[in-house]
């Protein structure tokens, strides 16, 4: 009887070719992180549910994958409890743990737990998977990798500038044409004050963060459903449609919210960042986008988002400043800022644009053919020598027909094949075939090393 084998929606298997491409992205990102002095950490896939809930807003909390307690997870829960309790309350009793939703909240927890061993400011990077109970669609998965880089324990805006430099460096190396969008949550709070809805700041940010997905008209409808008055929504419209250069936008928004203390602070921070950037030779454009909100509740200052210019895709990188995320765990007044690179979306974009290097899928540079026991032993000696030289190589394990062995090399995209039969053994050499050109030459193992090292 046939078994219907499958994987959960929103998750994926990765073939060797796909893994090599993904590793190329991870290595590129990690090399840039290390270049700027950031250090690696890892945190568990599971966190206590209490660590995660209440940090991402109501929508984010609904997307947390909760893990049922071991054993009888219904212990102590009556039928009456099930009938009368909310889903959230029941989940809190049945699930003590959850899969991490992002890497930032676990990082804040890590900082608090290890504060006596950390030298501040602490610059860390982390490349690990996260999980969200989201509806799968293009560019949106339930399991995906984030590549996070954060600095915590410093209020300096130079950290924001450095993160912009890191974003620029990563995407230049990957060959992606992008735009960095920048805003400030203090400006959004100033806007909420000016339109007379300071208590609706979370609803406002969640709604306007969807402008790219659903358009301004539906955003306005959502704001109305959240209790904003028609007058407040009308006051918001000029801001949503604001255009011009970064300087012109800053000047216009200053005229609108400059009378609020928090709005003034946000404008001053943005202006300082743009002033710093004038002295740095970025290859990427940085654009002030006042509709950028970043839905996570813990952001308090600058917020970032990166869009690919040549492919219709959501954000491929984003982040921001969080002033007191560690305070939730008992360590107040420790400000941090970071960004997260979405490796899965980046990979999708690069695949669509065919941006991976041609040799990205090459894992083995040289294959030795197998002609029998004596020839195999002869090849094994050369194989060990060539591997010591740092050249990835392998020996076909079976004495199969040469056509089959060469077909294997083709399928694996191995660029060179070395054959050593009785004639080559007598001459202490191998016949080296270039699989792309078909050219064949007799070469010693040292000559093969020299050629492949080029």
Question: If you had to describe this structure to a student in words, what would you say it looks like?
Answer:
- Helix 9 (201-208) packs antiparallel against helix 10.
- This protein folds into two domains: 16-43 and 102-353, 2-Layer Sandwich (BirA Bifunctional Protein, domain 2), CATH 3.30.930.10; 363-453, 3-Layer(aba) Sandwich (Rossmann fold), CATH 3.40.50.800.
- The longest helix has 20 residues, at 16-35.
- By secondary structure, the chain is of the alpha+beta class.
- It is elongated, with a radius of gyration of 28 Å.
- It starts with 15 loop residues before the first helix and ends with a helix.
- Strand 9 and strand 10 (317-322) form a beta hairpin.
- The model has no long low-confidence stretch (mean pLDDT 91).
- Helices cover 43% and strands 18% of the residues.
- The strands form three sheets. An eight-stranded mixed β-sheet has the order 1-5-6-11-10-9-7-8.
- The chain contains 18 helices and 16 strands.
Mean pLDDT over the full residue set? 91
CATH class of the largest domain: Alpha Beta
The biggest sheet amounts to: 8 strands, mixed
The CATH superfamily title of the largest domain? Bira Bifunctional Protein, Domain 2
Total number of domains: 2
Q: Beta-strand percentage?
A: 15-25%
| Radius of gyration based on Cα positions | 28 Å
Determine the N-to-C terminus distance.
Answer: 54 Å
Label the overall shape.
elongated
Percent helix range: 40-55%
Q: Please list the strands of the largest sheet in the order they lie side by side.
A: 1-5-6-11-10-9-7-8
Structural class determined from secondary elements? alpha+beta
Query: Quick one: how many beta strands?
Result: 16
Number of helices: 18
As residue ranges, the low-confidence spans are none
CATH fold name of the largest domain, please? BirA Bifunctional Protein, domain 2
Query: Architecture of the largest domain, CATH level 2?
Result: 2-Layer Sandwich
């Amino acid at each position: 009887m046939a078994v219907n084998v499958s994987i959960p929606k929103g998750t994926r298997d990765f073939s060797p070719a796909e893994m090599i491409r993904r590793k190329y992205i991870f290595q590129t990102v990690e090399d840039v992180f290390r270049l700027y002095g950031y250090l690696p950490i890892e945190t568990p896939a599971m966190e206590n549910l209490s660590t995660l809930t209440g940090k991402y807003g109501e929508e984010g909390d609904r997307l947390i994958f909760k893990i049922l307690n071991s054993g009888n997870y219904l212990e102590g829960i009556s039928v009456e409890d099930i009938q009368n309790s909310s889903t959230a309350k029941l989940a809190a009793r049945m699930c003590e743990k959850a899969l991490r939703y992002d890497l930032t909240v676990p990082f804040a927890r890590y900082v608090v737990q290890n504060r006596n061993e950390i030298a501040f400011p602490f610059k860390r990077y982390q490349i690990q998977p996260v999980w969200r109970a989201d509806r799968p669609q293009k560019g949106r998965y339930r399991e995906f990798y984030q590549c996070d880089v954060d600095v915590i324990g410093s209020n300096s805006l130079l950290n924001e500038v450095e993160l912009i430099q890191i974003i620029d460096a990563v995407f230049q190396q990957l060959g992606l044409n992008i735009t960095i969008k920048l805003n400030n949550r203090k400006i959004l709070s100033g806007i909420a004050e000016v339109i007379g809805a300071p208590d609706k700041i979370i609803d406002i940010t969640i709604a306007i963060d969807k402008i790219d997905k659903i358009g301004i008209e539906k955003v306005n409808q959502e704001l109305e459903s959240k209790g904003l008055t028609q007058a407040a929504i009308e006051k918001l419209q000029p801001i949503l449609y604001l255009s011009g250069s970064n300087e012109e936008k800053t000047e216009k928004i200053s005229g609108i919210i400059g009378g609020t203390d928090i709005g003034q602070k946000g404008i001053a921070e943005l202006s300082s960042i743009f002033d710093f950037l004038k002295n740095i030779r970025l290859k990427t454009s940085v654009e002030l986008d006042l509709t950028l909100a970043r839905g996570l509740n813990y952001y308090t200052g600058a917020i970032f988002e990166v869009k690919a210019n040549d492919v219709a895709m959501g954000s491929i990188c984003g982040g921001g400043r969080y002033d007191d995320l560690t305070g939730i765990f008992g360590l107040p007044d420790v400000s941090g800022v970071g960004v997260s690179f979405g490796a899965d979306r980046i990979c999708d974009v690069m695949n669509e644009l065919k941006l991976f290097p041609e040799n990205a899928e090459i894992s083995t540079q040289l294959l030795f053919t197998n002609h029998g026991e004596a020839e195999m032993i002869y090849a094994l000696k050369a194989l060990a020598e060539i591997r010591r030289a740092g050249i990835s190589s392998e020996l076909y394990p079976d004495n199969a027909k040469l056509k089959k062995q060469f077909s294997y090399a083709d399928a694996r995209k191995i660029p060179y094949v070395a054959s050593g039969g009785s004639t080559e053994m007598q001459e202490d050499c191998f016949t080296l075939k270039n699989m792309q050109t078909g050219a064949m030459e007799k070469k010693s193992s040292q000559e093969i090393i020299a050629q492949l090292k080029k």
